[in-house]
Sequence to fold (767 residues):
Amino acid sequence: PFIEGESLRAKLARESELPVAEALRILRDVLDALAYAHSHHVVHRDIKPDNVLLSGKHALVTDFGVAKAVAESTGKQTLTSIGVALGTPAYMAPEQATADPHTDHRADLYAVGALAYEMLCGRPPFLGVNAQAVLAAHVTDLPEPVTKHRSTVPEAVNQLVLRCLEKKPADRWQRADELLPHLEALLTPSGGLTPTGATPAIAVGIKRFTGVAALAVVLLAAGAFALLRPRDRDRPVDVTRVVVSQPEVASADPALTAIAAMTADAINAGLARLDWVQVAQPGAHSGAAATTTLSGQVYPLGDSVQLQLRVTEGRSGNLIRGLPPVRLRRDPGVEELKAAVSPALSLVGYVTHPLLGPPAVPAAGLPRFEAFMEVAAAIGVWLRTDTSAFFETMEHLRTGRRLDSSFAQAELWLAAHAVRSYRWPAFARELAWLLPVIERSNVQRSPFEAALARHAALGARGSVTGQLETLRQLAAIAPRSVFAWELPNHLLDLNRPREALGALDHLFRARGEGSPAWDEKDYWGARADILHFLGEYQPELTAARRARNAEPSDIQQVRRELRALAAHGKSAEVERRLDEVEDAGGTNPFDFPGDVYLQLGQEMVAHGDTAAGRRGIRRAVDWFERRTASEWRSPHVRFRAALAYLTIGEAQRALPIVEQLHREAPDDPRYLGTTGRVYAATGRTAEAERVLQQLETMPALALAGSPTYERASISAILGRQSEAVSLLQESLRQGQGWGIRSRLHWFFDWLPYRDYPPFRRLITGQG
Fold:
């Protein structure tokens, strides 16, 4: 079913603050739904404006994709138990932020407080330069009173919200149904609130509606109720939509009927963990959208029961993959049922995953569902380029293999990830034992798995061109896979930007205009980056604006649009619009305004407007100097502050910052290298030479060429042209790749080299 309306996020984006009475009515509906969910041992764990749908005069809680069942007082596990801390940083309770395994339903009440705070104040209770800073604030900082931001809010409302936001769960409201009467009292005339907006429904009407809302919550938690964005309804194909039918019973035996119902519950609980899946009720799959159907049969088998599950293509009814029958006791327990449905859940996960699809299904046998979930988590961060994501991906894959030792495909993913794009030889030890295992294996492989094995082997041997061919094969076999996206990245690392642009365009056309919003943003953003490198600034501006339209408040998209304007020479417009940066946000470590100002300032200098560029860099310096002590603890903030001082010509102010960072992380070549750059910029050549020698002793290959790049940068500041460019070229071969090459044209230390032919060749695309 579909529900017309808009999200609370959309309403807040438009109106910022809501009238007090309206905010409390929305809060009442949210709490009523949570009270019902909590009474059925379901914790939402991700209450936020995006997950509250406004329909008419009422609010619905949606998206139980990260729901976690609450353990019963007996300690018995429930079907939907997940056991990991998930959520959205701005609304996460302190116990969620610290991954406390004892997190319970009171985390939802904390999130309700954060939600109320934002509706009343136009901002969440804690802000920060990145997600880590926000999480730290939830754990350590006290929220400011609501009345400090909005004096018209009654003190009783302020106290109600602040009690929700207590750090210790025991100090909060203990249950949603404990808080509801207090909220209802505030909504009555004697509560001191003047009604605004729509007239409140009479008490009977409220009770009737909230019962429906609560039912919707439970259906969502079971995975049997799906809400789609209006734009998704017109999609001709929706591979993520799944119809679940309760298994048929082959006799009138009531025990079999009970097992069928329990099986459906187990399936729905598992599907609720696949946050990309939309579950529909039987009969809801007719129409344009293609679906996957999960059904089955339960029949007697002597003194036990046999369960046969089927996963079929919804339109044609064709069997996607055969599943072996499972023998069950007549009174199966929770774990027995979870094991029985595990292969079917893994199969549905593969088929529906936006970056996997049917070709990626293992040929030798389906893994345990828990192991598949680890691979899915790895795929979810595979395309991120920050170092932390690289290690996170590797750890998920290792865990998947550990959870199911027969999961041979996990070993292929491990090996492919260790060598992907030839940039990460840091995992040579991993490959040393993995590759012989893969080569000796006689496990049956699908075409996708065979290509994956070849890709890893060629990468381990350093065959860049061979890897390019296997990437093309993988993208052809599984057009939805991460390797389709990896192909343009690989071409960029090879300095073949035009080919990369063609591969990117082909990928997007293959996905069609009905692609999800994140595809739009990623595609247009990547296109803008490549066009900027190629010097094609008008098409870059068009692409950057398309990316920003897909996610207007994403700081990366704001950065891209203003960068394109700077390249166009429109410095005045860039300066006029810099305030937009302050209103944007992001989740990456450097998604904060100071970093954007620093880049845009250097871009304006690089494109000929030195005065405007220096004003931009000065704005970055001013931003860093206004940081609080809590924000200054972030090494990312301090590192960029040091670079801002160095870029503006105040290198001595950068020195104590990078020296401290180097003491905190002596193995990070960036901090040691920037110390050397400061020495070089201030004429302390002997100290710069000492840093060069230290960097030379660091394992360049294991650190993807970073120590070599830092040596190149120091040499560039010292004016050693030939040595600097030679080291730069070596660092690119060792793994710095596109991430450095695409930014060299505006890095301050390389600006004097722009007309030096050997340097020019390195920043000019070769294909």
Notes: Residues 65-86, 189-237, 421-425, 512-518 have pLDDT under 50 and may be disordered. Residues 434 and 740 are 30 Å apart (CA to CA). The longest strand covers residues 292-301.
